[in-house]
Amino acid sequence: HSRIPEQDDLVMDETKHGKVRDDWWYSPTKVVKEIISNLNDAKERLNLMLEKDYGEYASVVFDRDAIFSVIQSETIDKIKRRLQLKVIEAQLRYMGELGNNEGDDMANVTFRWYTGGHSAAAGHGNLFHQNSYVKLGETAMDAFASVGIDFIAESRAMGGYRSGPETALCMDAIFGRDIDAISWDYGMTDGRDPRNYWLWTARAGMAPTMPVVFLMDKRRGEVNAEIQKTGMAAVQLDLMPLRTMFPNSEEVNNTDALPPAVKWFMCKGHAEVEEPCKEHKFDTSICSEKPKHQVSWHNGWKDHLFIGRILGTFWVELLIEAVSDLVGDGASSISPNPAVSIEYYKYLRSIEEKDRNLFLNSTPSVAVREDGIYPALFRGDIYCHTALLPSRARFQGLTDGSTEKAVHHFGGYYTGFNAGTPSTKLPQPDPDTSDTGLILTHNPGDRQKACPEIKTDLQIDYGDWFSILGGDGWVSAILPNTAEIDAYSWKVTTERKGSVVLCTKMCSWGKCPKDFIFVEEVSTKNETFSPNLEIRIDDQEVERAFSIGENCYALEGKNRSTNWGPGIHGSQGQYKVEFKVNTPGFKLYLSSIIISDSS
Questions:
Q1: What is the distance of C-alpha 582 from the center of its chain?
Q2: Cα–Cα distance between 559 and 543 in angstroms, integer?
Q3: How far apart are CA 244 and CA 267, in angstroms?
Q4: Cis peptide leading into 208, omega within 30 of 0?
Q5: Is 432 exposed, middle or buried (0-12, 13-18, 19+ CB in 10 A)?
Q6: In this model, does residue 163 exceed pLDDT 50?
Q7: Of 157, 201, 365, 386, whose Cβ has the fewest other Cβ atoms within 10 Å?
Q8: Which of 479, 512, 487, 506 has the alpha carbon at shortest distance from 579?
Q9: What is the pTM of this model?
Q10: What is the pLDDT of residues 372-422, one digit of tens each?
Q11: What's the longest Cα–Cα distance across the chain?
């Protein structure tokens, strides 16, 4: 019925609608029993994969009931509904009975997972193909392909970053607008404060697809409880009970007899952190140079494999259940009866729309307790111009306005995008030069060298930035640019009360470069005072900046107002943002410029 692609086949160019391969094909069917048969065959192949990695422990640890025992969710039925919609859409579209919203009936039906988190979630210290999100895609793709769906798992995790405010407010720019499931793994950087998670889930819910949120943390369950009441689907996972089902390697008489993913995984009840497991944590000897970041707080290859296999198996099990629920017996109280049909597809879509409206009309309780511009950030229309990597904005050519799309490879590895100007090759400041615009910049010293033996970079997340040089004249940008307006459906409205937030480059371990200008230094110039930094929004002077958290600052004008109006008159709702650094030898390092609507 279908040709199932092997892992090595999956090099995908998204400029060709994300097709896996020209010779990949799928035979659609409305007969649910045939779809279930395809899934059962794929499940058998998954069992063989798990047995290869985990031997006799596979059937115990990766058992359906074991996995669901560590999951807390009140919305599993909502998640199954999403899967049913995908399965029905795949069959009907490939049969020519359902069009694509983008006008391309040949585009593949996709299920997109994005990993959000800090350096451990990003896989620092490991080879790219060892990371959990790559293993998740590897685990789930076969079963999803067997029903006509491309399962795509990628990372948007960034070392040193919290989940907010910048990451949350730049949700569209970083993760994109087509998200089916998104994971939150920022516990190490966010600490105990749940406010960033509140904001992050709110902005995730504002995505057109309103994705399923996966909380990879023991805390913040109260947030999940509330957002599920507002129409969102959410899951909380604690994987430690499953890890402890594996033996402690130091207690096994013949450790060499253990399966490869079990051997030296657990020691003294902990994964990869106690001796002698610690010595076997990373497996990167294939590379001529040892990768950076092999530290105690980063997961090794076995834990990444474990996380990816668990999450992938969860999705396969739920997909099987979702399809099985489509077997209509004619006695269902639901009308229309569950089936692979356009009628049932429309019925499911109508329920999704009700959940969507419930969410849009809700107000998070945490927003009520805040003041200033903060509440508007939860449900308002937001645009973000970002330099961060990895991000959809960079990979789709939105940041530089070129719309030139990078080439996408299996696991979310991209090539062929604009890397910007090396910080070592920035132009010399010139107060008389014409406006240079914002200079997209990266630090070559931050970039890990690629491992030639595996032909991929060891790291894909970097805190790139826009440079504004001290000694230059006024530097300006018209935002959003044309490419961003089209991508984000930014609307022209005279009612908009635009607030502007600037986020600066994150300083590693709190140590900023010596030439770092802080946004809080902004002020207005007069006869006796020349501030280090001047900013104008649509020719209006910025008088003050105040922190809204971490590295982000809201800009105020006259009367301490954060309202900069609807944008340039006659424009497409755009704003002219101007900067002038008056201190020679210093720079303004901006990672993101955010415009929110507080109307």
A1: 37
A2: 9
A3: 10
A4: no
A5: exposed
A6: yes
A7: 365
A8: 479
A9: 0.93
A10: 667 789 988 999 999 999 999 999 999 999 999 999 988 888 999 999 999
A11: 84
